[in-house]
Amino acid sequence: MRSLRTKLSAAFIGVAVLTTVLTAIFASYTAHNTFRQYVERPGDRTLSPAPSGPGQTAAAPDRGGVRHPFGVRERLFASRIRKAIWSGTFVAAGMGVLVALWLASRIVKPVTDLTKATRAIAGGQPAPIVPVAGEDEIAELGRAFNRMAVQLAETEERRRRLFAGIAHELRTPLSVIQGTLEGMLDRVIEPTEERIAGLHSQTLLLKRLITDLRDLSLAQAGVLQLHRQLVDVSGVVRETAEALTPLVEERGVRFRVDLPDRLPRVDVDPDRLRQVMQNLVENALLHTPMGGEVRVAVQANGNGVRCIVADTGTGIAAADLPHIFEHFYRADQSRARSSGGTGLGLAIVKSLVEAHGGRVSVESTPGNGSTFTVELPTSPQEAY
Q1: pTM (predicted TM-score)
Q2: Does domain 229-377 have CATH number 3.30.565.10?
Q3: Is the Cβ–Cβ distance between 75 and 46 less than 8 Å?
Q4: Max CA separation in the chain (angstroms)
Q5: What does the pLDDT look like over 163-216, one tens digit per residue?
Q6: Please, what is the angle between helix 270-286 and helix 233-243, to 10°?
Q7: Cβ distance 168 to 175 under 8 Å?
Q8: Alpha-carbon distance 96 to 12, whole Å?
Q9: What is the CATH topology of the domain spanning 156-221?
């Protein structure tokens, strides 16, 4: 019996049947023994005189002169029957109450555990895991609560890491700016053009970090404003590749772009799509050593358009792959500052792609590079 309704129905029906059966058994057993004793040992009875005329029934005399049809033993038999029935009823009712209370405690206990757990969450405590047994609706509710508790714990951990990451990312450039300016004010550091340019680059990093945080928060909240239009993905990828030519030359890597002649257009925000492709290509260029190769390809599939960014860089360890799209997560902590990134690029990519109804995935092998794939749905008007 997996249904809670079935369990409750069976419990109540069982209590009713148990009460009735026990009452009947107890009363029948006592009545049988009493009647047998009455028949086998009749004893003395107070007999009424013979009838005085035809059609008249004799009656036993009573104290007040009233005559009854039964004698003392008949009345004693009837009294015992009544007592047996009432005794059996009380015994059966008591057992029924005990069984009902036991069943109720078994049914209500999971609800009580859930109530205590929800009160703990409301009080700001970590979400506890409630014990679950069975396959009924209450058990399913308990499992759903446990899944929610795990998700709440993971969300809280991500929130703590996010705040710690924001504080770290803001503190570093601010410390550089503060230290340089204090040295200039104390005339310890000469305000040369190079140092002023360094301060400017740090302020640009702060501005980019704040912009990334704003975009990320809006995208994850589902309120990021998108200016959708039918876009040729090949054109956006071509523009992105041309804009990154200086970085390609600086890194000294081979850069290959494979674009088909004809692609179905997709309904996206071209600026946000350009931001996605730029983040992925920059990430590939910065993690590919000199002499390596970065390849960008756009393909059409049955359900949309697929953009692929592959490199021959250092790759990503299997333990890091599940976290690669998290805020401020860097697989190589030693390169946290060398790239000049904010640690939010891939998180923004994932949020922007999902905001367009697409998905992004990554495949990587340490030492053999990484491949990021963005899949965007095709507009119904452009589907083949």
Answers
A1: 0.59
A2: yes
A3: no
A4: 146
A5: 777 777 778 788 888 888 998 888 888 888 888 888 888 888 788 788 878 887
A6: 50
A7: no
A8: 9
A9: Helix Hairpins (1.10.287)
